[in-house]
Specification:
The chain is built from 17 helices and no strands. By secondary structure, it is mostly helical. The protein folds into 2 domains: 388 residues, MFS general substrate transporter like domains (Growth Hormone, Chain: A), CATH 1.20.1250; 50 residues. Helix 2 packs antiparallel against helix 8, helix 8 runs antiparallel to helix 9 and helix 11 runs antiparallel to helix 17.
Amino acid sequence: MEYQDHPVNVRRRVLAAACIMAFISPAMGMMVSLALVSMGNDLNVGAHSMSLIVTTFFVTSVIFLVPAARLSEICGKKKVVYVGLFIIVVFSLLASVSWDFASLLVFRSAMGIGTSFILTASVSLLTDVYPPGNRGTAFGLSTMFVYLGALTGPMLGGILTDALGWRSTFYIITPLALAAMLMLANFREGAPASEGEPFDYKGSVVYGASIALIMYGVFTLPSLTSAVLIAVGLSLLPVFVRIEKTEKFPALRLTMFSNKGYKSASVSLFLNYAAANSVVMMVSLYLQSVGALTASEAGMVMLIQPLFQVLISPFAGRYSDRLDWRILPTAGMLAAFLGLLTLSTLDIGTPLFVVMIALIFTGICHGLFGAPNTNVMMGLCRREESSASASVIAIMRQSGMMVALGIAMFMISIFMGSTDNLVPSTYPEFVSASRYTFLVTAALALIGAVITWLYYPRRGRA
């Protein structure tokens, strides 16, 4: 079916489903981030272990993004979305009854798999039902719901954790997933683009092994074994690319990367998330430990960042169809640099308004960058590449998040070592870990701003 074949009411229902799915992932992440301290106290684990609750989710989501994108091409995007939502519902309910730290990690990992299914299919569904001239607005609205999830997540996570305990943060996902399924119930997708083609197991396994080795190495730094794992994982990436170029039916189409603008936009996206995504975990831990705030109080402070994202992203999406493509993403990267540089000054006794100013800048960053970047990357690919491009967007985003968390965990390991419990006696070490985390990520944001301005696609749409 061509874009204009879809009636307006169908487009709106698909957009509603995409917005709900866009809301689910960040809401889950932010609620869990605000519940980390409570989880750690209940399960008797320290700061480094608590961060694994967040990072395992991202690792599995990135590993399964490529297989999920290929399955959406073979089986249909709607089916893949339904499977992903079902997985999220089942394992979020199981996570709520976790009996120890290991079981919680397993269930969170499975939720990451479900998230990979909805991340790849939901974005590409919008390209199927909206013509190019209207995509900026659609992507702007869906991106707004990503940030709306980040906006309400801290508040919900803090309130639920204080009132009912951390396990209650997993309950809210079920009605949202069912609502998304309902919105897509009458949507007729048509024949999948690659129906009947075989699945590329070899490429998927090599890709998954590469990501797993790299991220396990990053999260266990510093050690010689970690460096070896990272090196082996990186060496598998060229092998994966070679397999995909020679495979008749590859797991991930790489034809989009023949466009230099697409490559530059992908790199900018990765750097954006690698720079700005350590903020949620580190600031949340800082506010609840050094800042002596409750989970709900910390959640209210953390609302500042996604509030600015929600306010800015619809307008950024709309104007991305009109402006030089470099302007909004570059401005977003510079805002991230200013926010992270501000956070690098944190110390014991730093006034709360300093944290709030930094969160405003990081909120502006995501608001200006997200929707315009998605619009550009999806606009530079052909329709048959939409699932693969949506997968690339999710890979760059999730990989950037993992790198950001890896940097934070590395600094925690360096400054706190094996004694990573957040107690008053270890606050100075945690503050040092936070400051160096934000210095490194501020440098990434500045590099990203330069690369975005110099190498990002420059063409604007009329």
